[in-house]
Design goal:
The complex is a heterodimer of chains A (358) and B (510). Helices cover 69% and strands 3% of the residues of chain A. Chain A is mainly alpha-helical and 358 residues long. Chain B has 510 residues and is an alpha/beta fold. Chain B is globular and about 70 Å long. In chain B, the strands form four sheets. A six-stranded mixed β-sheet of chain B has the order 6-7-8-3-9-10, sandwiched between helices. Chain B has a six-stranded mixed β-sheet with strand order 16-17-18-13-19-20, sandwiched between helices. Chain B has a four-stranded antiparallel β-sheet with strand order 2-1-4-5, covered by helices on one side. Chain B has three domains: 140 residues, Rossmann fold (3-Layer(aba) Sandwich), CATH 3.40.50; 161 residues, P-loop containing nucleotide triphosphate hydrolases (Rossmann fold, 3-Layer(aba) Sandwich), CATH 3.40.50.300; 66 residues, no CATH class. Chain B contains 16 helices and 20 strands. Classes of the chains: A mainly alpha (358), B alpha/beta (510). Chains A and B meet through helix 8 and helix 9 of A and helix 10 of B.
């Protein structure tokens, strides 16, 4: 038997939701098997993971906190992918953003908060964009594939952080490789009293809104989509393809860097080597699951926040590894990508004619 | 494994050995081949001639098992062959060298050939090396066995492909436009190889080509395909290049109306190309000069692959020129980028309508893609204005489409109309129009041609590049003929005939 994928001529309205539902169901089923394998009880685990974070105020606000960096990286990846610029470097750009933010945070002691906060966010954004600049120039000037260059720059950013923390930014009190705490004037406001939910989440939602408006409604967004969907056609129509890619890459890096600044100024308040829990890589998954829609990326980021918090409580209560959360996210990616393929293509099975028969 | 029944290795006597009988193949509604029969003989070079889309490649794909015919069959010495895959074809002694080589570029020549002929798990590279050296000597195909393929020039890579096919034991070899990628010297040595394979090794060769000169040099037999049918099959020495060109482009269709031409335009030229050159190993342009006046249609004719595509790329700004100048309205362009050409008032309809538009975007979005800024409001695109612009274009150009429909769902004719609407709504001073009616039905074709005539009436200078000679004779005021990357002659429409143009196309007139 041989499988062939044939493009579907049309798609009825119910096929999309049906396939997403099937993907979700399949994900839960596979996760349940894995949880059973890890020695946990599947049904309570699924409940802990997906439902219990939403049942308490603490669980809910912690989920929002976990979702915050993913909102930024999801938006950063989505806007780059929409332009056909395959930025896999949101991780490094976010880390570069944390460096910029920490640098401002350590040197802004005497400023008022209304100056300090914009300054630290701006620094994160600039450093993120700067980290995205080299691969973008290599791509637009020399045609060097950005997937490889953006990806390979991620560990470089982490190494720079490690260097800084073991050198100039070593903690002045404990001597550990963690930076000093940033100045109060650069810490973000808490937007939900008595929780850790900070201004970064609001900013992320605004960024999502701006991206959605720009790409969907503005002339620059139409150009960006055209460049992403058919660069040659865009070139024939006289659109500046290379410039569009370069600017989009910088904006994407800037958004990821802003996410880094939001982590430093909003919740961590100091730079550590573990500042990013693979937020940039998860951003790729978030954007893909959202089919590159910005509102979708916001929702998927929030869902991932819930799963992250839920998997911690599941692991505590049922003594299963907390990595089960990442596992669920990975399985979800595979099932949803399959669903997207099946939505677009029909699978035709052909049985090879047996030999000798006519 | 393979299921070939009754394979007979061809006798080398010169009797018809492989016979394609009544082959028909359709893709959707397009009939690619209609009842085509062809015989191939051992020790003979059979040239297959035809314009793009005439069905040459489809026919050979069927012979090589890459595609299945809807009806008809392939016979070897009167016995039916079952060829369902290239593996079956090779087992029947048929080899093919496609335009895009199937070599692993990072491997050596030995490894590539071992890969093609490996029948066991263990590969004896030293043994393969000896075989390569022997085969090289036998067929006169010198290749460096230890070289990495990507380090070899294209002509040598092609030799490796040919050798690979021969060493897998083929007695028939299909060469799909083998000279398209070669420079003049390499072409001569390839033709020498072809002669030697035929005479010394008795291989039957199918040579797909557009080029008269090389067909004259090596072919024993020539078949001409036109619109999916064999219109002629004869011995090569019994037919002239001129006759072949006429067969290829077809007879004058009765009823083709002549466009009403205005009295000879007296204005000064608006687009002037002066000795434009693009340096390439193959397929470049050299010393292309012509001028077009407002309201004039300059037809560009030529057998395909003689530089027309490159010329259109130059005028659309996607290929940069290496020498010469382009002037629009008396001003010389600094560089021919898409933006500078558009600013100067040059509009383009590319030969591939699919590549000229974004399929996933809406009709309205594609329609304004070259003038997005015109519809940019302060904070968002003015969609209402876009839609009303689109609706008036739909009415004016008789497009059967909804503005919000995805462009990719349109029929070919409607796609072309949208692109023409985009081109003409800029009111271009010069319109470069390439293969405007390729693949369109009669209604759409007539409509598109009338649009072009109308535009020129309104004062637009048109450069019309087409492989359809009827189209050029119907519309053009003057016809420039391209041959090997140069304009070899410009003929006024009053003197243009299929004969005079055909001679220029074949490169035999001066």
């Amino acid at each position: 038997m041989k499988a062939r994928f044939v493009l579907r001529a049309s798609t009825p309205w119910w096929r999309g939701p049906l396939l997403v539902g099937a993907a979700a169901l399949l994900t839960i089923l596979i996760s349940a098997i894995m949880i059973r394998w890890a020695g946990g009880a599947p049904i309570p685990a699924v409940r802990y993971m997906f439902i219990s974070p939403l049942q308490s105020r603490f669980g809910f606000t912690e989920s929002l906190l976990s979702a915050t960096p993913l909102v930024f990286t999801g938006a950063a990846v989505a806007i780059a992918f929409r332009a056909g610029y395959w930025n896999i470097g949101a991780e490094g750009q976010l880390l570069a953003g944390t460096i910029g933010a920490t640098w401002v945070g350590l040197h802004a002691e005497s400023l008022p908060r209304i100056v300090g906060v914009p300054l630290i966010l701006l620094a994160g954004m600039l450093f993120g964009a700067l980290w995205a600049l080299t691969p973008a120039l290599l791509r637009t000037r020399l045609g060097i594939d950005e997937v490889v260059t953006t990806l390979l720059l991620n560990p470089v950013a982490l190494l720079i952080i490690t260097g800084l923390l073991n050198g100039p930014w070593r903690n002045s009190e404990s001597g550990f490789p963690d930076s000093d705490v940033i100045a109060d004037s650069t810490k973000l406001w808490i937007v939900w009293p008595n929780t850790r939910v900070h201004f970064g989440l609001a900013l992320g939602v605004v960024i999502i809104g701006l991206c959605w408006w720009f790409v969907g409604k503005m002339s620059g967004g139409l150009k960006l989509r055209a460049v992403g969907l058919a660069p040659n056609a865009a070139r024939i129509a006289g659109l500046p393809v290379e410039r569009t890619l370069l600017i989009t890459a910088l904006v994407s890096g800037g958004i990821a860097g802003l996410g880094g600044a939001s982590e430093i100024a909003g919740v961590a308040h100091q730079l550590t080597t573990g500042i990013s829990n693979n937020f940039g890589y998860t951003g790729v998954i978030v954007a893909t699951l959202a089919a590159l829609s910005f509102v979708g990326a916001l929702l998927v980021a929030l869902m991932f926040g819930v799963i992250t918090v839920g998997s911690f409580s599941a692991s505590r209560a049922l003594e299963i590894p907390s990595q089960i959360g990442q596992l669920v996210q990975a399985v979800l990616l595979i099932t949803v990508v399959c669903a997207l393929v099946i939505q677009k293509y029909r699978v035709v099975w052909t049985i090879k004619r047996s030999e000798g028969r006519k | 494994m393979n299921s070939v029944e009754g394979v007979v290795i061809a006798s080398r006597g010169g009797a018809p050995s492989i016979f394609l009988r009544n082959i028909t193949k359709a893709y959707g509604e397009t009939i690619a081949l209609s009842d085509v029969s062809l015989d191939l003989r051992a020790g003979e070079v059979h040239a297959l001639l035809g314009e793009n889309g005439a069905g040459k490649t489809t026919l050979m794909k069927i012979l090589y098992g890459l595609s299945q015919p809807d009806s008809g069959q392939i016979e070897a010495d009167g016995v039916a062959l079952k060829i369902e895959s290239p593996r079956d074809a090779r087992a029947a002694g048929i080899g093919m060298v496609t335009q895009h080589f199937s070599l692993v570029k990072n491997m050596t020549v030995i490894e590539n050939i071992a890969l093609a002929s490996a029948k066991t798990f263990a590969i004896d590279l030293a043994g393969v090396r000896t075989e390569i050296v022997a085969a090289s000597a036998r067929f006169g195909l010198d290749v460096p066995p230890d070289a990495i393929v990507s380090s070899l020039p294209i002509a040598l890579q092609q030799r490796v492909e040919i050798l690979k096919a021969l060493m897998s034991g083929c007695s028939y070899l299909i060469l799909d436009e083998p000279t398209a990628v070669l420079g003049p010297n390499d072409i001569d040595s390839l033709l020498e190889v072809i002669r030697r394979l035929r005479s010394d090794a008795g291989i039957g060769i199918v040579l797909i080509s557009h080029k008269m000169a090389e067909i004259e040099k090596v072919a024993d037999r020539v078949s001409v395909l036109r619109r999916g049918q064999v219109v002629s099959s004869s011995l090569a020495n019994g037919i002239t290049s001129k006759e072949l060109i006429t067969l290829m482009v077809g007879e004058q269709q009765s009823g083709a109306e002549q466009r009403q031409r205005s009295a000879s335009p007296s204005q000064s030229p608006i687009l002037v190309l002066d000795s434009v050159g693009v340096t390439r190993e193959t397929g470049g342009l050299s010393d292309v000069s012509f001028a077009v006046r407002p309201g004039e249609i300059l037809g560009i004719a030529g057998v395909s692959g003689n530089g027309q595509t490159e010329l259109v790329n130059v005028l659309s700004g996607t290929t940069q020129i290496d020498s010469g100048t382009i002037e629009v309205e008396g001003r010389q362009l600094g560089s021919n980028t898409p933006q500078s050409l558009m600013r100067a008032g040059v509009g383009i309809l590319g030969e591939d309508r699919h590549a000229s538009a974004v399929h996933a975007l809406q009709v309205v979005e594609n329609l304004i893609l070259d003038c997005v800024e015109k519809f940019a409001g302060k904070f968002q695109l003015r969609r209402k204005e876009m839609l009303s612009h689109c609706e008036s274009a739909i009415t004016q150009f008789e497009i059967k489409a909804n503005p919000k429909q995805a462009f990719g769902t349109l029929s070919g004719g409607n796609m072309q109309k949208v692109l023409l609407a985009r081109l003409f709504s800029r009111n271009p001073k010069v319109a470069i129009i390439s293969q405007p009616t390729r693949g369109l039905d009669v209604m759409a074709t007539n409509y598109v041609r009338s649009l072009i005539a109308q535009a020129s009436k309104q004062g637009t200078a048109v450069v019309l590049v087409s492989e359809d000679l009827d189209e050029i004779l119907e519309l053009a005021d003057r016809v420039a003929v391209m041959y090997r990357g140069s304009v070899v002659g410009i003929v006024d429409h009053s003197e243009a005939s299929r004969e005079s143009i055909g001679e220029l196309m074949a490169g035999i007139a001066k």
